[in-house]
UniProtKB/TrEMBL annotation:
Source organism of the structure: Rubroshorea leprosula
PANTHER family: ALLANTOINASE
Gene Ontology cellular-component terms listed: cytoplasm
Record protein name field: allantoinase
Catalytic activity of the protein: (S)-allantoin + H2O = allantoate + H(+)
GO-annotated molecular function: allantoinase activity; cobalt ion binding; zinc ion binding
UniProt cofactor(s): Zn(2+)
Transmembrane stretches, start-end: 6-23
Gene Ontology process terms (BP): allantoin catabolic process; purine nucleobase catabolic process
Keywords tagged on the record: Hydrolase, Membrane, Metal-binding, Transmembrane, Transmembrane helix, Zinc
Length: 502
């Protein structure tokens, strides 16, 4: 047989492998689409790089999406053309927001994965963990988690993980909870008061105890909205004319600090199980969005000192605003638990600076302007939730100046500890081997958050931060080495990855 004929099948095989490879490869977005920078291997240089060992002047080498070396200025020899020099701008680990509601699927008109993750990227957030409620359906089963992942896939500009819901329907069903954890949720979230969402009912301490027992096995956390409804002191219409629903003071009365205190007191009867040698050793409880800096915080401090596996977060709006300054009818400021008075805010900052509050999160909880009832101004009927995702870095930096917040503290509060809570070992620090998730920003640059400012959240008009002057401008955001945001522009293709626990 002619040699040519013997080679033909081999050639055809090679050709088909080549075609297959080409088809597979073209279905994956190329680096050019995922990143505003054409390099796979490059250096980021700056005089202020925040590392776990302190702030250095030098360069970070990125290759294949990871940080492969960190070099101090004096040891810098590489004369690479693939270099981005940011001068005096700060290079920090990207922020990890462990508490965001992107409301997708089901209520994408409130936010949605595309707009929410564009806003995150523009704000220096490189990973966010989406809450199991305010989307529809709520993420409380393997089926609903699947819908969530489908809604996120190919639509996210940053990495996104998911919390599952602990609700009465699944709390006593260990098989269902384990299935949800095995399907990849990073932990569970539950409410001790009505959540405001019908398919996400509240849990009591026995549900929480059951949930913790299952979570202990997987060493994943339970996040709890800690408020217990008590009798309201509100005067109804007719009694002395009733309380004015447009007054912020009226809203404050409906959710006093004693609600938080009562919930935390109950939670602590369960968190003692998480101590070393306890029946739920390995489980961890995280109190979300603490507002009360007095009795509630004191209880948490005491439980920590007894060895309970317990952490607590607060949010920028509790640190930036105080009740006294909220105008009648300005429902942009309504959230639960509520923003309290100035002395409470001062105490929250003190606790944050002393390390009693472990981390920060946005609790970005938007809706459509209609449900905020901005023209009506009724605090009792308006949707509760602050819209903030894009602004949390400049807000915590700007309002923290008075209290002496440092870049290292911002990194601990926004990156290192959130990474630990969400079980993300390769994120949260500029360290060799970690994902190249970084934000480059100018802390000293001031800007007005006005109509000319490029805002990417879906409904900017409902944000309580509009109209404020802030300092700290985000120049660039890298997610796993992709430059996903640069000076007002996003990468053409959303290449963020859904994060599933394994
Ligand atoms: Zn929330």
């Amino acid at each position: 047989m002619d040699l040519q004929w013997r080679l033909l099948p081999l050639l055809m095989l090679l050709a088909s492998i080549f075609i297959l490879f080409f088809i597979q490869d073209s279905s994956k977005p190329s680096r050019k689409d995922c990143s505003l920078l054409p390099y796979n291997h490059f250096w980021i240089k700056s005089k202020r790089i925040v590392t776990p060992q302190g702030i250095i002047s030098g360069a970070v080498e990125v290759n294949g999406g990871n940080i492969v070396s960190i070099v101090k200025e004096e040891d810098w020899k590489a004369k690479s053309k693939e270099l981005v020099d940011y001068g005096e701008a700060v290079v920090m680990p990207g922020l990890i927001d462990v508490h965001a509601h992107l409301d997708d699927p089901g209520r994408a008109e409130w936010e949605g994965f595309p707009s929410g993750t564009k806003a995150a990227a523009a704000g220096g957030i490189t990973t966010l963990i989406d809450m199991p409620l305010n989307s529809f359906p709520s993420t409380v089963s393997t089926e609903t988690l699947k819908l969530k992942i489908e809604a996120a896939e190919k639509k996210i500009y940053v990495d996104v993980g998911f919390w599952g819901g602990l609700v009465p329907e699944n709390a006593f069903n260990a098989t269902a909870l384990e299935a949800l954890l095995l399907a990849g949720v990073l932990g569970l979230k539950s409410f001790m008061c009505p959540s405001g969402i019908n398919d996400f009912p509240m849990t009591n301490t026995s549900h929480i105890k059951e949930g913790l027992a299952v979570l202990a096995k997987y060493r994943r956390p339970l996040l709890v909205h800690a408020e217990i409804q008590e009798k309201s002191e509100l005067l109804s219409e007719g009694e002395n004319g009733g309380d004015d629903p447009r007054s912020y003071a009226t809203y404050l009365k409906t959710r006093p600090p004693s609600w938080e205190e009562a919930a935390i007191r109950e939670l602590l009867t369960v968190t003692e199980d998480t101590r070393l040698g306890g029946p739920a050793e390995g489980a961890h409880l995280h109190v979300v969005h603490l507002s009360d800096a007095s009795s509630s915080l004191q209880l948490i401090k005491e439980a920590k000192s007894r060895g309970d596996s317990l952490t607590v977060e607060t949010c920028p709006h509790y640190l930036a605003f105080s009740a006294e300054e909220i105008q009648d009818g300005d429902t942009r400021f309504k959230c639960a638990p509520p923003i309290r008075d100035t002395s409470n805010k001062e105490k929250l900052w003190e606790a944050l600076m002393e390390g009693h509050i472990d981390l920060l999160s946005s609790d970005h909880s938007p809706t459509v302007p209609d449900l905020k009832l901005l023209s009506d101004g009724n605090f009792l009927r308006a949707w509760g939730g602050i819209s903030s995702l894009q602004f949390v870095l400049p807000v915590t930096w700007s309002y923290g100046q008075k209290y002496g917040v440092t870049l290292e503290q911002l990194t601990q509060l926004w990156s290192e500890r959130p990474a630990k809570l969400a079980g993300q070992d390769s994120k949260g620090a500029i360290a060799i081997g970690n994902h190249a998730d970084m934000v480059v920003w100018e802390p000293e640059a001031e800007f007005d958050l006005n109509a000319n400012y490029p805002v990417f959240i879906k409904n900017p008009s409902i944000s309580a931060y509009l109209g404020k002057r802030l300092s700290g401008k985000v120049l660039a955001t890298f997610v796993r080495g992709n430059l996903v945001f640069k000076e007002g522009n996003h990468a053409p293709t959303p290449c963020g990855a859904p994060i599933l626990a394994t």
